[in-house]
């Protein structure tokens, strides 16, 4: 399979590294060659200067002969002229190129330390230097030194070959490294891609054996966690469906049973009335259950429109308390509001009323007579906190983590007594979270329960400031 990511990464790296390597090699090569050529030039000039110094001491035919003889045995060629450029002596035969150099020389203007007169080693056959001969402060002649450029050319081509060889090795190593590197990066990615494909095909048992602690390892872990979560969700959904069908079946069984008994000819009028009232109760319970389930389904799909507005917490508390007061009075539970004045929350009052009703309903159901339920409202710079405390039976610690789950009831056997279906807190949680808030529950068995709702203040404060 053409592994596209690896190819892209590989190519990108390759291009970059090749550019960097080429620049480096080129610079190195040019500097190297220039230095070597400079060295050769300087040596040639130094040799010429030595001759001119010797001749300055004794500018005589014997010395001239001697110099010419010396250079005829060396790789260099010397031509000595007088001040006007007339040739006095030469060591080897004079090539046309040398003649050209002589012709192009301005004999009047040569610096004391000599100069390089031909340095185009890659165009010409010879490089050349010119050292003036000065006897007692007077300009007497010139020593021209020539060296064949063949040697320089050979040396440079040798260098170039070496550089090419090293460059090729470097490119080879680069290719191998990039290949390995890109495999190292993309292999786990490909495995993860396969894993997520499996996930979407419904296979949640994904095991990614990617044991590394970099970002790829983290990604692999995230995918594994995701697959576990999916698995859990699937199980939760199945459980939820099972509980729903159970929840629906129980009241339906009651209804059918009582309807059967009521329709028996032997049943008295009074019995019939009683059975029918039970049937009505159960039907009401069923209707409520289905309404709540529907509401939850809507909350799940965000179809729930939340119309937030600035609303006084105290007014909200009072309206809720007015609704539940009769039921609390009946059970002789006192209900108190403690709310700082002028707390304004940015909420959907109708939905929040429902949250408070659900929580208060629980408090009432699970508190004995003569106890107290308090609903509090406080705020600081960042949060508005609503808390509802009761002095009821409390919730066992082992059940605490689950009370917000759908259809979860602490005591299943007593459900008939309380008439709950275990959806109240789940709905409350969805609504609070849809407001960007948080709901928590603290409880101690035998002492009581406190439900705490926290809302961020951000929006409402900004708006109330703008509003004056
Ligand atoms: N204040 C409380 N004191 C004691 N137990 C509580 C309290 N609030 C909740 N619980 C326990 O948590 C469970 C879940 O509460 P939730 O409100 O979700 O369901 P419910 O009250 O049983 O049914 P519903 O609210 O749908 O009528 C309850 O069944 C109850 O056992
Ligand atoms: Mg409830």
UniProtKB/TrEMBL annotation:
GO molecular function: ATP binding; phosphorelay sensor kinase activity
Superkingdom, taxonomy of origin: Bacteria
Residue ranges annotated for the HAMP domain, each copy included: 183-235
EC number: 2.7.13.3
Keywords from the named record: ATP-binding, Cell membrane, Kinase, Membrane, Nucleotide-binding, Phosphoprotein, Transferase, Transmembrane, Transmembrane helix, Two-component regulatory system
Coiled coil: none
The protein's enzyme class: transferase
Catalytic function, reaction form: ATP + protein L-histidine = ADP + protein N-phospho-L-histidine
Key word Cell wall biogenesis/degradation present: no
Residue ranges constituting the Histidine kinase domain according to the UniProt record: 243-459
Transmembrane segments: 12-32, 163-185
InterPro entries referenced in this protein's UniProt entry, alphabetically: HAMP_dom, HATPase_C_sf, HATPase_dom, His_kinase_dom, HisK_dim/P_dom, HisK_dim/P_sf, HssS/ArlS-like, Sig_transdc_His_kin-like_C
Protein name (database record): histidine kinase
């Amino acid at each position: 399979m053409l592994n596209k990511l690896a190819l892209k990464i590989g190519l990108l790296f390759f291009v970059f590294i090749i550019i960097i390597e080429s620049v480096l090699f080129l610079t190195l090569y040019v500097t190297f060659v220039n230095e070597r050529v400079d060295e050769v030039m300087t040596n040639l000039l130094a040799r010429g200067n030595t001759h001119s110094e010797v001749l300055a001491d004794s500018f005589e035919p014997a010395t001239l002969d001697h110099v010419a003889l010396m250079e005829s045995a060396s790789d260099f060629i010397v031509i000595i002229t007088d001040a006007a450029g007339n040739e006095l002596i030469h060591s080897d035969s004079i090539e046309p190129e040398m003649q050209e150099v002589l012709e192009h020389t301005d004999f009047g203007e040569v610096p004391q330390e000599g100069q390089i007169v031909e340095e185009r080693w890659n165009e010409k056959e010879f490089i050349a230097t010119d050292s003036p001969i000065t006897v007692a402060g007077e300009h007497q002649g010139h020593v021209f030194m020539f060296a064949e450029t063949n040697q320089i050319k050979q040396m440079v081509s040798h260098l170039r070959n070496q550089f090419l060889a090293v460059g090729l090795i470097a490119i080879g190593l680069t290719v191998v490294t990039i290949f390995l590197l890109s495999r190292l990066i993309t292999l786990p990615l490909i495995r993860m891609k396969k894993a997520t494909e499996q996930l979407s095909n419904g296979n949640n048992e994904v095991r990614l054996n990617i044991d590394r602690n970099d970002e790829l390892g983290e990604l692999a872990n995230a995918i594994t966690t995701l697959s576990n979560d999916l698995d859990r969700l699937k199980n939760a959904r199945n459980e939820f469906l099972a509980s729903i069908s159970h929840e629906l079946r129980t009241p339906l069984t009651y209804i059918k049973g009582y309807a059967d008994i009521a329709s028996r000819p032997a049943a008295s009028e009074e019995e019939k009335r009683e059975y029918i009232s039970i049937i009505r109760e159960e039907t009401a319970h069923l209707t409520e259950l289905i309404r709540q389930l529907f509401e939850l389904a809507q909350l799940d799909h965000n179809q729930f429109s939340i119309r937030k507005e600035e609303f006084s917490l105290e007014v909200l508390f009072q309206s809720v308390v007015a609704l539940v007061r009769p039921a609390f009075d009946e059970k002789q539970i006192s209900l108190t509001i403690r709310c700082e004045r002028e707390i304004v929350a940015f909420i959907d009052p109708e939905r929040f009323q429902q949250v408070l009703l659900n929580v208060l309903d629980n408090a009432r159901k699970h508190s004995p007579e003569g106890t107290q339920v308090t609903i509090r409202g406080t705020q600081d710079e960042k949060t508005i906190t609503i808390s509802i405390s009761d002095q009821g039976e409390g919730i066992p610690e082992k059940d605490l983590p689950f009370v917000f789950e759908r259809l979860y009831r602490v005591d299943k056997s007593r459900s008939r007594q309380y008439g709950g279906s275990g959806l109240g807190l789940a709905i409350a949680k969805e609504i609070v979270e849809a407001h960007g808030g948080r709901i928590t529950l603290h409880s101690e068995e035998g002492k009581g329960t406190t439900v705490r709702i926290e809302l961020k203040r951000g929006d409402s404060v900004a708006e109330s400031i703008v509003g004056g």
